[in-house]
Amino acid sequence: MNCNFTIHITKLVLAPFLLALTFVTMNLAHAETTESKIEAAFNQGKLPNLHSVYATIGQQTISEIYFSGPDESWGQKRGEVNHGPNTLHDLRSVTKSIIGLLYGIALAEGKVPSPNEPLLDQFSQYSDLKDGSGRENILIEHALTMKMGTEWNENLPYTSAKNSEIAMELAKDRYRFILDRPMVSKPGEKWTYSGGAVAIIAKLIADGTNMSIDAYANEKLFAPLGISNYEWAKGADGEPSAASGLRLSARDLSKIGEMISKNGKFENRQIVSSEWLHQSFQRKSELEPGFYYGYLWYLAGSKDKQIIVGLGNGGQRFTIQPAYNFVAVTFAGGYNHPNAWKVSYKVLTDFILPAAKKSI
User: Fold this and answer.
1) Residue 42: helix, strand or coil by DSSP?
2) Are 148 and 241 in contact (CB under 8 A)?
3) Strand extents, DSSP E, 233-315
4) SS3 65
5) In sequence order, what are the beta bridge partners of 337?
6) pLDDT tens string 222-274
7) What are φ and ψ of residue 303, in 5° steps?
8) CA-CA distance, 49 to 261, in Å (whole number)?
9) C-alpha dihedral over 79, 83, 89, 94, to 10 degrees?
10) What is this structure's pTM?
11) Cβ–Cβ under 8 Å, residues 179 and 120
């Protein structure tokens, strides 16, 4: 089952991070390791469903620890899993942010149209949807920024067929379903969390490259980063879920963060263009004071010390702060629990940041 992360459980969870890293203390006298502190909190029940923590500054690993616990793969129970450095884990909606990177790679190759092109013009098979309703005015950028102006509701439980994400998965033609939703606002006016917007971006990549999204990701992103072990869940129609289906290890997801911190480069090879990253991390919507959205990434912090974040259902958190070459990955198994984000946030603020302060 496809489960995504909705905005009502992410409000203002980023703001303290920049302050914590900016105002650095020089107290180095800590007898306990970061891992022992996390383990103690886990054993005391303070970090329920925590699975993995991996954080680095530059080439230095500042925290790495794994736990056993029940897990899922795209909603399917996997039982008790002994998580470790090579264990694959659902990214859930962090997958969306990876799709954003892939669009940038395809754009640099001339395989997909620019974001300012009309979206429906790319889908001649749905020309009947140019019906004067306003869909003609939806640009590709509006899908990248989740501001298409169409009706979409993922605030309902993901067990409900009325949830737009689930309805898309059940539809005979997922792409027609995405594009023919009623217009409820002008394109570009309102941010609405939408797995459908990401699915349509992935379709543009697949059509433009003549490759499935998972195959393209493997060739253009994973393999260049040395990532060979991954899974990508597919719907009943065989389409890889662009909204939430990717599974990676914490270490391998961290490689993507390292590449972003280095302006798109990995081992002196340009993987994603610096221009695309700059464009992706522009603030397109303010979701809450100090909390923004770009091209499929959440953003916070000052512009010179920006915090770039991918978030996923169940407590998945991918945090990057390029100014410090800081990358933190937290995986957890609190799927569909409304407060699951609190575990990853507590790990970040109570354990990883104090360790990071000593390394800056």
Assistant:
1) helix
2) no
3) 246-248, 265-266, 269-270, 285-288, 291-293, 298-300, 307-312
4) strand
5) none
6) 999 999 999 999 999 999 999 999 999 999 999 999 999 999 999 999 999 99
7) -65, -30
8) 29
9) 130
10) 0.93
11) yes
